[in-house]
Amino acid sequence: MKAFVIDRYKSKGALRFTEMPEPDLRDDDVLVEIHAAGLNPLDAKIRDGDFKLILPYRLPLIMGNELAGTVVRVGPRVRRFKPGNVVYARPHQDRIGTFAEFIAIRESDLALKPANLSMEEAAAVPLVSLTAWQALVQRAKLKKGQKIFIQAGAGGVGTVAIQLAKHLGATVATTTSTVNVDLVKNLGADIVIDYQKDDFADVLSDYDVVLNSLGKEELEKSLRVLKPGGALISISGPPDLNFARDNGSGWMLRQVMRLLSFGIRKKAKRQRVRYSFLFMTANGKQLGEITTLIEAGIIRPVIDRTFPFEAMNDALTYIEAGRSKGKVVLKIK
């Protein structure tokens, strides 16, 4: 099968387009022919080696973290899917590889594709929607009447998180550039801060939750936005000790992560707020709940551009520029 791989970690290095063996199928696996794959900043970070300590992949590695496609074959223990089913997923972090024509994926990571989405639209959903779900529903337990600040509202995670937060009954504030103000308002944002004109830390206060997806400066300024007892959830780091434990990291790596997050945890404690790092995990059951929201018209994907499979490196360069609205997708089949 055709696939895009990396042979070694290299900052901004090109992925190699090559032939790879079709994946082996385990007893609880589903073999999926991939029609479309979503791209994410995570793909660039994996390529650059930013996660090689916590995600020790064996190289060469087929890249890619979300997909939509058709079931070709199932393992003997699979019960929920059969050949011909149209599905979408974020594979388990240890078994990525959606920039390819086929992938073997655990049954528990899969969900049926929303009936009202195309393959390309569906491929844009799994990683960002699961990130938003696990941050807002699972981690923050966001409730009606609460206030949440979602950074980078026009980004992949931001566009979904705004819609989910409004569905949960929260007041939503976000940041974006001038050109995307109308986009995030149409998604449901109540307060929109143009970061080219204003500093969110000077405008917002007394918030229950902040979803951080930016750098250290924005992370630390977010503490000023929260009220005592609030929650600062970061999907861009630094990783903390709880994440290290959940990830099964050894003692030494746990200490490294404890030190990496020491500064922000200390400042959060001083402000009487909770800091946590979220690295989303594959979950077919949660994705099924998201499917229900999509088919009800509550959440809709926002797609910036679709690239042909062979232009994968161009697509990755495009998202690294940081100006895409919503998601960028590869059309594979």
How much helix is in the residues? Answer: 25-40%
CATH topology assignment of the largest domain: Quinone Oxidoreductase, Chain A, domain 1
The N- to C-terminal Cα distance equals 12 Å
The helix-and-strand class reads alpha/beta
Uncertain runs are none
Q: What is the C-alpha radius of gyration, as a whole number of Å?
A: 19 Å
What is the CATH H-level superfamily of the largest domain? Medium-chain alcohol dehydrogenases, catalytic domain
The succession of helices and strands, N to C, reads: EEEHEEEEEHHEHEHEHEHEHHHEHEHE
Task: Walk me through the structure.
The two termini are 12 Å apart. This protein has 333 residues and is α/β, with parallel strands linked by helices. Helices cover 31% and strands 26% of the residues. It folds into two domains: 2-125 and 301-331, Quinone Oxidoreductase, Chain A, domain 1, CATH 3.90.180.10; 128-277, NAD(P)-binding Rossmann-like Domain (Rossmann fold), CATH 3.40.50. The protein is globular, with a radius of gyration of 19 Å. The strands form three sheets. Strands 3, 5, 6, 7, 8, 15 and 16 form a seven-stranded mixed β-sheet that branches. It has a six-stranded parallel β-sheet with strand order 11-10-9-12-13-14, with helices on both faces. It has helices spanning 41-48, 119-123, 126-139, 156-167, 181-187, 200-203, 216-222, 241-246, 251-260, 262-270, 284-295, 312-320; strands at residues 2-6, 16-19, 29-39, 61-62, 67-74, 86-89, 102-106, 110-112, 147-150, 171-176, 191-194, 207-212, 226-234, 274-277, 303-308, 327-331. The longest helix is centred in the middle third of the chain and has 14 residues, at 126-139. Helix 12 links the parallel strand 15 (303-308) and strand 16 (327-331). This is NADPH:quinone oxidoreductase. One of its GO terms (molecular function) is oxidoreductase activity. Residues 13-330 form the Enoyl reductase (ER) domain.
